[in-house]
Amino acid sequence: MKGKFSDDYLSPRKKKVLWAVVESYTQTAEPVASRTVWKRFDLGVSPATIRNDMADLEEEGFLNQPHVSAGRIPSCIGYRYYVDSLMKWPKPDLNQIEFDEEFNKDNPISDFLKKMAKQLSSKTLGIAIISHPLLLELTVKDFHLSYVKKGFCIVFLLLEGYVTITYPLEIDITSEEDAFVLNSLVKSKVIGKNRNEINFELNSFHDPVLQLSTQAKQVMKSIIEKLWEATDKKAYIYYSMKMFNLPDFSDKEKFDILVALLEEEEKIVEKLFEDPWEKREIKIVIGEENEDPKFWEFTFFKIPYYYANKVVGFIGLISPTRVRYPYVVELLDIYAHKISSGLRRLFD
To answer: Which CATH number is 109-135+234-347's, of 3.20.20.60, 3.20.20.100, 3.40.50.11260, 3.30.450.40?
Structure first.
């Protein structure tokens, strides 16, 4: 829908009427009558003129009338025109929100981002999705191989940013002595290196005489696989139960749509990663602009966060189409700045 109408497609007066309807409806969730617009907003015209303009806006597709005797509500096109041409885009106040949590060695990235998603959801009553940082070539800061029993050990990795990975590994060793030798051998090949550098070490590692060289290669291959997983497309999702109480989902059909969407976590994560882009801006997809019908009752917001001047992750929000757009835009911008600055403190 975006770009279908130019900024001057509507007359100045109709722009004011559409703006007033969107502002009123997003705040009250009640269909807006012409008299309501006349009372609440000083447009300098009579209720009859407003009524005629609202009828025209409905005919042109910017407003809908849910019931014959009811007022009007914005359509998908009406919201799009509001966002593109009428909304005052806020300048984020980075001191507006107090964050109790910070990135540090006692608060891993995963825990921090989960708490950010929970806080964002509680402030918006939407479905918050925050991706784990992508594309970071995380360096191994520590490695340890622990012997458990014959043919079985535990691998521990500490990565940059205090990201920890622990996993079991079946391997052909028979004693703690084997594990000790293997630990020293692998450690010399992986400490201070990222996955590409470890892969280079693996490919250049050729010593048929060296004891446990085959096992060392196996451990290094497992580390490379885990580092790939560490930069895989995963995200943290949170939604507040208060979302079910929103008037937008008061009828059974829309309530069932919300429940069905919440059961599709994979689709929600896919939505966050689809159509990646490098622009420093927020993306807003409204209602039927979403290709998947499961999202037609919702607006999807997405904003990137950064490290080393590159997009490394995304923050998403799925809300009803009836949402306070300026508030959400400002909030997402603040959260993106918060996460980006946290990554700089960790890795720089």
So the answer is: 3.30.450.40
Summarised one tens digit per residue, pLDDT across range 284-302 is 999 999 988 999 999 999 9
Other beta carbons within 10 Å of 61: 15
| Inter-CA distances, 76 with 11, 195, 235, 334, Å | 19, 45, 28, 26
Sequence spans of domains, the chain: 12-86, 109-135+234-347, 140-230
- DSSP string for residues in 214-269: HHHHHHHHHHHHHHHHHTSS-EEEEE-GGGGGSGGG-SHHHHHHHHHHHT-HHHHH
CA distance 150 to 231: 32
Continuous segment of H or E residues that includes residue 295 = none
Give tens-digit pLDDT for 83-97.
Answer: 999 998 888 776 766
| Token pair of 210 as six digits | 């060296």
Query: Nearest 5 degrees, angle CA 253-CA 259-CA 264?
Result: 125
Nearest to 113 by CA among 232, 233, 235: 235
Measured CA to CA, the distance from residue 81 to residue 74 in angstroms comes to 10
Mapping DSSP to helix (H, G, I), strand (E, B) and coil, where does residue 294 land? Answer: helix
What is the layout of strands, in order, in the sheet containing 127-131? 235-239, 127-131, 310-320, 298-307, 283-286
CB atoms within 10 A of CB 107: 14
Tokens of 89: 């885009």
Q: Where are the alpha helices (DSSP H) in 125-212?
A: 176-190, 195-204
pLDDT tens figures, 331-340: 999 999 988 8
DSSP secondary structure letter of residue 155? E
**Which alpha helices (DSSP H) does the chain contain, by range?**
12-28, 34-40, 47-59, 76-81, 109-124, 176-190, 195-204, 213-230, 252-262, 265-273, 325-347
Compute CA 68 distance to the chain's CA centroid, rounded to the nearest angstrom: 39
